[in-house]
Amino acid sequence: MQEEKKSLNFIEQIIEEDLKANYKEEELKFRFPPEPNGYLHIGHASSICLNFGLGLKYNAPVNLRFDDTNPIKEESRYVEAIKKDVKWLGFKWAEECYASDYFQQLYDWAVEMIKNGDSYVDSQDSETIAQQKGTPNQPGKESPFRNRSTEENLALFEAMKNGETKEKEHVLRAKIDMTSSNMLMRDPVMYRCLHKAHHRTNNDWSIYPMYDWAHGESDFIEQISHSFCTLEFLPHRELYNWFISKVCKEGEFPPKQREFARRNLSHTVVSKRKLLKLVEEGIVESWDDPRMPTISGLRRRGYTPTSIRNFADSIGIGKRENRIDVAHLEFCAREDLNKTAPRVMGVLDALKVVITNYPKGEEEWLTAENNPEDENGGNREVPFSREIYIEKEDFREEANRKFFRLKLGKEVRLKNAYIIKAEKVVKDEAGNILEVHCTYDKESKSGSGTEASKRKVKGTLHWVSVKHAKQVEVRLYDRLFMVENPDGDKEKDFMSFVNPDSLQVIQAFVEPSLASALPGENFQFQRKGYFCVDPDSTPEKQVFNRTVTLRDTWKG
């Protein structure tokens, strides 16, 4: 029992302490509350795993709530993308909710707050209001409209709601304390006029609630027990509690906001504004470009839900922000794909090998193991013939003793096939090697049980039969930024650190078993890395994205 307590993170400790005090387990309820103004990224994945993980741990419902209070930036396509991401990660929500579901209730509460003297309509512009707020060391000044009569406030607020006032002409502000040490408590704005169509309510409303007002009250409406958010919302907690205190009656259950530290990822940015800029300026193809840190980008690149959940679990929940090396995320991908991805053979930079003593026109099908890490992985058949492709880097005319691949006069084993020996090369007029001519030991077939098949040679190469090879497009993705923290230099724009070599497109040859591979399927190209079939693939032209290399080879 003591061991279990020690293993709890501080969020779980808060819940356990609440359960010992006055909470009941059946009252626990959590939520994941994205704003539908962009695609979710790896930071959101940690929050998804935290909230839905708590739901699984405590057998408690978890709502998916869209805090859709800004019609200028929010779109239905973002809603659908977010739902797809959460499902893909393997989680199910109890209810699908929207802050816009509560617009009428929020408005009614705001009217009650006017009547109770807790809010007022301010007719100043945003710049003036900001100046009057003061500084952390200097108290703010009260608005000249702060003491408007209740009747005037109600009439103006109704006119705002009915679209009878101009945008930016009035706002509704909470009446709290202009001298508070917490600047968020200095009469924050609750509503602004926006004559914009909303993705769900269309033109029903001409006023929209601010996030701080809508978020906590939405938690209260849904009876969320614990509202977990990132550390930048710590100063908002006082306001969160103040707003809820204005609508929560005696005996009702107020939500509890608590904060955890954001986990930043190296060699990328996660600001939605900056990610959108990358899309708009054509640095990347789209929000789901495989170089993007979005969940949809990671999915398209070939990351698995398990690898992302394992990443989130391994970095844990903390109280201090830190930057996680992207190499750790890549490690989690390799660890999972090593267990699950079938091994296949693909040659990325082809060099033709002619086996001169193999009968012309003959072919045979050899047995290859799909995945030695998966006992149920089974086998497949791969074709072998007189002409094959190997990687250019796997051959040298001359090489030292430490080069264990193919060189003139030396032997290597072809994976699942025969031992071959390089005899001579064929070159063009410029001296470039066009072909390597080899001989094979026909008694050395892998798995045949002959003495020759048991011979030890130091190198084993992957290959593809020329006659049967399928030509495909391969996209070799690398890190999007050349530096660990693109946001870290205040003197330089983050765009100046974009890696110009983050994408290389090549033509490659793969074994024919991949002809039926479907978008989203993962494979290990032996000795080259993990790859995934891209949605751009067609029956005529397959496209493979490199997820990660077999080992971390990045320098920077």
UniProtKB/TrEMBL annotation:
Boundaries of every Glutamyl/glutaminyl-tRNA synthetase class Ib anti-codon binding domain copy: 341-441
Transmembrane segments: none
Superkingdom of this protein's organism: Bacteria
Residue stretches making up the tRNA synthetases class I (E and Q) anti-codon binding domain: 460-534
Principal EC category: ligase
E.C. number: 6.1.1.18
A Pfam family hit: tRNA-synt_1c
Keyword Kinase: no
Swiss-Prot/TrEMBL GO biological process terms: glutaminyl-tRNA aminoacylation
NCBIfam families on file: glnS, PRK14703.1
Protein name: Glutamine--tRNA ligase
Organism listed in the record: Psychroflexus maritimus
